[in-house]
Design brief:
The chain is mainly alpha-helical. It is built from 3 helices and 2 strands. Strands 1-2 form a two-stranded antiparallel sheet.
Length: about 70
């Protein structure tokens, strides 16, 4: 037989709370990276973007990849 120990306090699953907080922090950091990258690239002129080899229509994808990696939406 297998048994699972779950850390609880007054019937409250602490591991679940810790996991949820860790996921929330990760999501907040990723969102901040996306927002910062998007804002900074969007502020550049079309000429500056062209110097970087970036088309204005690619900004959202580039910001997404910076924050979340190359995995799709």
């Amino acid at each position: 037989m297998a048994y699972v120990n779950i850390a609880t306090r007054n019937g409250f699953n602490l591991d679940g709370v810790r996991t949820a907080l860790r996921n929330l922090k990760t999501n907040m950091v990723n969102r901040r990276v996306f927002r910062t990258t998007f804002t900074e690239l969007h502020a550049l002129s079309t000429h500056d973007l062209a110097d970087l080899g970036i088309n204005r229509s690619e900004i959202r994808r580039i910001a997404w990849e910076a924050a979340y990696g190359s995995k799709g939406k």
